[in-house]
Specification:
By secondary structure, this protein is an alpha/beta fold. The protein has 2 domains: 177 residues, Phosphoglycerate kinase, N-terminal domain (Rossmann fold, 3-Layer(aba) Sandwich), CATH 3.40.50; 176 residues, Phosphoglycerate kinase, N-terminal domain (Rossmann fold). Helices cover 35% and strands 15% of the residues. The chain is built from 14 helices and 15 strands. A hairpin with an 8-residue loop joins strand 10 and strand 11. Helix 8 crosses helix 9 and helix 11 packs across helix 12. The relative contact order is 0.13. The model has no long low-confidence stretch (mean pLDDT 95).
Length: 395
């Protein structure tokens, strides 16, 4: 990965305006409008505080949700209000993104003050990476900082466009994400193991291809384990199996065998006859799943296998839950894996939205080496893809 610029490379900032792309795409209660998880906001505080401490004023921009245009329910106004509490100082909210009125408000900003612009996706030029929108945004500031790793894989105006017009740098969060994930991608301490879960093999083919070539061991859980078990000759009953991905799973198993690398699959599973939170369930082995049963979690023997496989690991990357962890009846496997990773002596890096939610549910986030704020961005980075938001900071 080419060297990218960091905050210190921006030079003296006293009296300057910093346009900062953050990822404040946070979950909100639809009834109250209250933010239910401000993890991503807290992650951006070190960058904001550092810029303010250097005598700059800070102009924040972010997306929220996937609006098709201006939509009050996706306004960043409540986010600005919440940020005020986190920062302990006023955050001025501007109900616009670019244009004369926004420029006028920005011109009045004093050093040490914070302003938040309206949702960047209210402007159709954002997702089209419109150069004119990028120019208009760049006119608001003297420097640009990208601290939105979660959006780094998007070639959008506020991510990849603006850096062409302003001195730019990675914020503290972006810097940490690239550093931690870069170690996993480039020079992991070995043995290096990966735990990959979630529902679909097809969503993670490029990642699995890379891991089978580069990791020392791989554990497969979640719905995708069903596809690998079928590829290994098991009848999975009514379990969700990606039939079109079975050939790919067989190919990956053969590659691992040729490398004498372990691909760990479930040896026991929790099954139910209905996909519901309160479905009656039982523990069984993959060769004893009835035709009307579906596997919804890994069992305790599988957890112990994972513990043994990872005993000597020095680096572990985890992406994707082991089962339907949102439902208590099928959460035990994912929670057990979270806790064994928290107790591990290995460097543990977690990436992906569901995995982040799982470690938060387990209450062990602060006991892991790094929990990425970027789901798709983290996966694409570890697949070896160039992220537009990072490339823009290296030019």
């Amino acid at each position: 990965m080419a060297a990218y610029r960091v905050l210190e490379d921006l030079g003296p900032l006293t009296g300057k305006r910093a346009l900062v792309r953050v990822d404040f795409n946070v979950p909100m209660d639809p009834d109250t409008g209250n933010i239910t998880d401000d993890t991503r906001m807290r992650a951006a505080l070190p960058t904001i505080s550092w810029l303010l401490g250097q005598g700059a004023s800070v102009i924040l921009m972010s997306h929220l949700g996937r609006p098709k245009g201006p939509d009050p329910k996706f306004s960043l106004a409540p986010v600005a209000k919440h940020l005020q509490k986190l920062m302990g100082q006023p955050v001025e909210f501007v109900p616009g993104l670019v244009g004369p009125e926004v420029e006028s408000r920005v011109a009045q900003l004093k050093p040490g003050s914070i302003m938040m612009l309206e949702n960047v996706r209210f402007n159709p030029g954002e997702t089209k990476n419109d150069p004119e929108l990028s120019r208009q945004l760049a006119r608001l500031a003297d420097v640009y900082v990208d601290d939105a790793f979660g959006s780094a894989h998007r070639a959008h105006a506020s991510v990849a466009g603006v850096p062409a017009f302003l001195p730019s740098a990675a914020g503290r969060l972006m810097q940490r994400e690239l550093s931690m994930l870069g170690e996993v991608l480039g020079q992991p301490e070995r043995p290096y193991w990966a735990i990959i879960g979630g529902s679909k093999v097809s969503d993670k083919v490029a990642l699995l291809d890379r891991l089978v070539q580069e990791a020392d061991g791989l554990v497969i859980g979640g719905g995708m384990a069903n596809t690998f078990l079928k590829a290994s000759g098991y009848d999975l009953g009514a379990s969700k199996v990606e039939d079109e991905a079975v050939v790919k799973a067989k190919e990956l198993l053969k590659l691992a065998q040729d490398r004498q690398m372990t691909i760990g699959l479930p040896v026991d599973v929790v099954v139910a006859k209905a996909f519901s939170a309160d479905a009656a369930h039982r523990l069984t082995t993959p060769d004893a799943i009835a035709s009307d049963e579906m596997a919804l979690d890994i069992g305790p023997k599988t957890v112990e296998k994972i513990r043994a496989w990872l005993d000597s690991a020095q680096t572990v990357f985890w992406n994707g839950p082991m089962g339907v962890f949102e439902w208590e009846a099928f959460a035990a496997g994912t929670m057990a894996v979270a806790h064994l990773l928290a107790d591990s002596h290995a460097k543990v890096v977690v990436g992906g939205g569901d995995s982040v939610a799982a470690v938060a549910k387990a209450g062990i986030t602060d006991r892991l080496t790094h929990v990425s704020t970027g789901g798709g961005a983290a996966l694409e980075f570890l697949e070896g893809k160039a992220l537009p938001g990072v490339v823009a900071l290296t030019k």
